Amino acid sequence: MALITSVAGFATFGVAARAVALTIQRRPVVSGFAGYGAAAVALGGVGYFVHNVEQRQNELLKERKEVLLANRERRLAQDA
């Protein structure tokens, strides 16, 4: 998943969560634009963090796969 997709998706979720919170409180949804910005920035940061975690995990998986394939090749060479 691309970085912009992660950040924008989480930021959108933050804005939606803020709108739902205001609706539950029976306050006008268009009040407090600073709250929307804070929610977007906070959850956009979470999206950035999740993207970096996903990248690190993909690298670790690729390295582990290479090790497993090398072990398989070595085992097949020994058996033959």
From TrEMBL:
<feature type="transmembrane region" description="Helical">
    <location>
        <begin position="31"/>
        <end position="50"/>
    </location>
</feature>
<keyword id="KW-1133">Transmembrane helix</keyword>
<protein>
    <submittedName>
        <fullName>Uncharacterized protein</fullName>
    </submittedName>
</protein>
<keyword id="KW-0472">Membrane</keyword>
<keyword id="KW-0812">Transmembrane</keyword>
